[in-house]
Design goal:
145 residues, alpha+beta, Homing Intron 3 (I-Ppo) Encoded Endonuclease, Chain A, 2 domains, 3 helices, 10 strands
């Protein structure tokens, strides 16, 4: 069976989520599919022993095409509503996009409800406030690593 057939028989889509329509090993019918990778802030779902971006599976379920790349129209990779998912021939460029915090290298981490601070893709830490995250960046740059 092709991937589309497996997806169609395994999941149903509803309001930005994939739900299992069959029970599998440790997964109950009705459970939401996917787990969030804390580094990429994207949801991944295992199908047939291979990990897929959940957004690609949602796109496949709707359009019967597995896209090479996915872009999110609102910039939120955790907003998996089909109207927010767009197929692309190249990866979305993050250059030129302003950070939601207003500070380069600081973004909000929804699962922990904390601010992530990074310098040149090096994770510095999670912080309660933007100000703490920015201060940690400054300390890191001044040698207090």
């Amino acid at each position: 069976m092709d991937l589309y057939g497996v997806i169609k028989e395994t999941f149903r889509y509803e309001n930005g989520n994939l739900y299992y329509i069959v029970s599998k090993k440790s997964i109950n019918k009705g459970s939401i599919a996917g787990s969030i990778n804390p580094t990429t802030q994207q949801s991944y779902t295992m199908v047939g022993g291979k990990m897929y971006l959940t957004a690609k599976l949602i796109y496949l379920l709707h359009y019967k095409i597995l896209p090479e790349y996915i872009n999110f129209l609102d910039g939120d990779s955790l907003n998996l509503k089909i109207e927010n998912i767009k197929s692309s021939i190249k990866p979305e460029s993050k250059k030129g996009r302003k950070a939601s915090s207003g500070f380069k290298g600081i973004c909000f981490h929804k699962p922990t409800k904390k601010w992530i601070a990074r310098i040149n893709n090096k994770h510095i830490g999670l912080f309660q406030t933007i100000e703490e995250a920015h201060s940690a960046q400054i300390n890191y740059l001044n040698g207090a690593k």
